[in-house]
Amino acid sequence: MDWTRHDLLDLQDLTREEIELILETAKSFKEVSTRDVKKVPALRGKTIVMLFFESSTRTRASFELAAKRLSADTINFSVGASSVSKGESVLDTAKNIEAMNVDMIVVRHKSAGVPQMLRDHLDSAVINAGDGCRAHPTQALLDLFTIQEKKGRVEGLDVAIVGDILHSRVARSNIFGLTKLGARVTLCGPSTLMPKDIEKLGVTVDYDLKNVIKKVDVLMMLRLQIERQREKFLPSMREYAREFGVNKEKLKGAKKDILIMHPGPTNRGVELSADVADGECSVILEQVTNGVAVRMAVLYLLAGTKHEPAE
Amino acid sequence: MSLLIKNAIIVNADGEAKGSKDILLEKGVIARIASSIPSENFKVVDVEGKKVLPGLVDLHAHFREPGREDKETIETGSRAAAKGGFTTVMCMPNTSPVIDNAMMVDAIFQKVRRAGLINVIPIGAITKGQQDQELVDMFEMKKAGCLALSDDGKSVNSSQMMRLAFEYAKMVDILLIEHCQDPDLSAGGVMNEGYHSTLLGMKGDPGLSEIVIVARDIELAKYLDTRVHLAHISLKRSVELIRQAKAQGVKVTAEVCPHHFSLTEEIVKSFDPNAKVNPPLRTQEDVDAVKKGLKDGTLDCIATDHAPHTQEDKEVGFGDAPFGMIGLETAFGLGVSELVDKKVLSLPQLVEKMSAAPAKIVGLEAKGVVAEGFDADLVVVDVEREWEVKAEDFVSKSKNSPFIGKALKGCVEKTICGGKIVYESK
Which residue of A has its CA nearest to B321? Predict the structure, then answer.
């Protein structure tokens, strides 16, 4: 199939074939990063801006490396928390950057929908690097890539996503990606951090992690933000770690070849014990490696299409 | 100067008159209505069989003056109201500073006179600075001309404060209007909580935040045997509670906004910041329930909650955008398109909800009816005419409407306030 999209906003929009095309393309790019000279000329002359309204270390670094390995020119535009004062127009900032003739904008913002807004008003290709609690499509794509690589398939697998589902854009994007590719998804986490009507997305909710661990092929752990306790969602971190954290002991009932994933950075001792995070089932660092390949694939595919004005 | 309106089909809340009538307006009142009035030396307007309704009355608008005159002023708000067929608008006190003393009320009335278009009546705050700490001087506010008080924009959060407010307002005989929203349950919410907020990853405001305050205020009004008016009711459960309270004789009245009977939360997926409103757009089930509530009388009136915001303030992304949409210029068209055309209400019933009932709720006894002796506030409408909502056509200073691009039926042709034509369509 041919790639026709100009922007990547979330996985909800994509067809199974489109997701598979990205994963396929990423496979060929993964090899580039293992070369001595880690560069191909695919995007020579293209300019890609990292427009981050919310702090990020690894996602931004990953996008930047992906762009550079494709020979694109990149600049970082981090809008610090202080300058995103109330009243500053996100759109105005983005238009100013676009006026410097950039080709692609990789954007992250704390508000859901900001990438859509930019897409509707800009000619540059817009890539969502995370918007609020809504979507983080490239994270989900790299997770799918990693599962596919390790298990040879996604279809028919049982995957659990564990932790703070309510505030997780990683969870939302993965739910769409995994279900589109035919995996069965179980969500597990404290009931106060489980969003309303989430079952309507075609997933199962189970609050008993021990039970969940027994049946799944993949365990995707989410990062718990420490603030959630202050916000009264949780009685204590101690209880959270006991009920929803994974350690060697809890893994005893698991399948031998279970994959342990985490979007990073991990709270060691909270959602994952150190021995599990560094253990043989963990593919956390491979996720990071694959992130570069997947983002190279996304940038490469999007660069080949023309902008069509929003309807 | 006198004005003679010829060939009008008069539509009041109690029905549509048979045959056309002439209406003579003198000294701000309806002097005479007859089959034919000779046009001596009056100014004559022949409406050629168009429908003439009592001027519309809105119990809930934000004119942003003082403080945010870049969004709206009393003058531009009045102009928008006149274009929408409104001749009386009550404006909310959550301005900067808050309208919580008689001096401020006087200042608003002075601006209204200077605009010289329609009747704008300020609603005073319930608590000083809307801070939930001390009651406003209610006797003084009433003497200054307030017909109602409200801390709109938020609830009176303390139940004890609200109890005291009800008791005092009962003695003063002034209406309290409650914005029903529990601040803890709704904290941080930007849209209705449910499947769509889950899908969009946005913090939901559960309907529960409205319901608990509706229930609380009904119980307070019942216990203290006093009246309460509930603003912008948006939920099925609220309608049920109000219906039950009315059946038990509680003196509760309630309003619904055009957007809450026209739109559902689904449009939020477009991330149009103009669809961000408080209370948020709800589900189809709620839309159906508020329509039913209008039909069976549980919901007494339609109010716009006209809430202008500049483009600059709105274009910061859905999550950060302020709540509110403008409504004065689309309310009548939505009433006709969504209620009359869809057989929820008859045209006279729409007149009841948009003019007679709201006038009665705040005690405007000379308004809301086209009859001899009543105020000369009229609106000439064409209920068949279709028009498209366009950003450039709004006369409000702000254009934040989610209805832009939508075709509506029911058009205001002329608005007459105090016997004077204040708006004429092109």
Answer: A87
CB contact under 8 A, B198 and A198: yes
Tell me the chain A residues in contact with residue B70 when contact means C-beta distances shorter than 8 Å.
none
Catalytic site residue from B100, B300, B305, B375: B305
**For position A166, what pLDDT does the model report?**
95
Using alpha carbons, select from A187, A142, A120, A139 the residue that is nearest to residue A160.
A187
CA distances from A285 to A146, A278, A288, B259 (A): 10, 9, 5, 50
First to last CA, chain B: 24
Q: End-to-end CA distance of chain A: give it in Å, rounded.
A: 24
Q: How many CB atoms lie within 10 A of CB B284?
A: 10
Give contacts of B 315-374 with A, CB under 8 A: 315-320
DSSP one-letter code for B307: -
| B414, B45 Cβ separation under 8 angstroms | yes
β-bridge pairing B119-122 and A125-131: unpaired
d(CA B53, CA B340): 15
State the nearest Cα–Cα gap between A166 and chain B, in angstroms: 8
What does pTM read for this prediction? 0.91
Question: Do the chains contact at B315 and A91, CB–CB below 8 Å?
Answer: yes
> How many whole angstroms separate alpha carbon A65 and alpha carbon A74?
9
Give all domains of chain A, ordered by start, each with its CATH number.
Answer: 16-136+290-303 (3.40.50.1370), 137-288 (3.40.50.1370)
CB contact under 8 A, B315 and A195: no
Q: What is the pLDDT of residues A157-200, one digit of tens each?
A: 999 999 999 999 999 999 999 999 999 999 999 999 999 999 99
Residue with tokens 């529960």: B208
Residue A86: what pLDDT? Answer: 44
Distance of CA A188 to the CA centre of its chain: 18
Cβ–Cβ contact B271 with A under 8 A: yes
Minimal Cα–Cα distance from A4 to chain B, Å?
21
With a cut of 50, list the residues of chain B below it in pLDDT.
none
**CB pairs A-B closer than 8 Å:** 73
Is the model's pLDDT at A308 over the cut of 70? no
SS3 B265: helix
**Helix or strand or coil: residue B318?**
coil
For the segment A194-241, what is each residue's pLDDT rounded down to a tens digit?
999 999 999 999 999 999 999 999 999 999 988 777 788 999 999 999
Q: Which residue has the tokens 């056309």?
A: B20
- Reported as type and span, the H/E element at residue B21 is strand B21-26
Distance CA A45, CA A72 (A): 6
If you search the block for the tokens 């609380």, which residue do you land on? B216
Give the span between the Cα atoms of B194 and B281, in whole angstroms: 11
* B193 near A CB under 8 A: yes
Given an 8 Å threshold on Cβ–Cβ distance, is B312 in contact with A195? no
Contact with chain B for residue A311, Cβ under 8 A: no
- For each of the domains in chain B, give its residue range(s) and CATH number, in order of start: 53-361 (3.20.20.140)
Distance from B202 to chain A by nearest Cα, in Å? 6
Q: B354 with B84: CB under 8 angstroms?
A: no
Measure A67 CA to nearest chain B CA, in Å. Answer: 27
Taking only residues 246 to 265 of chain A, the set having a beta carbon closer than 8 angstroms to any beta carbon of chain B reads none
| Predicted complex ipTM exceeds 0.90 | no
How many whole angstroms separate alpha carbon B310 and alpha carbon B296? Answer: 37
Q: Does the annotation mark B182 as catalytic? A: no
| Residues in Cβ contact with A86 at an 8 Å cutoff, skipping those fewer than 6 apart | B316, B320
How far apart CA B246 and CA B252 sit, in angstroms, is: 7
Distance of alpha carbon B366 from alpha carbon B374, whole angstroms: 5
A35: annotated active-site residue: no
CB within 8 Å: A135 and B201: yes
Instruction: Reduce the DSSP state of residue B253 to 3 states and report it.
Output: strand
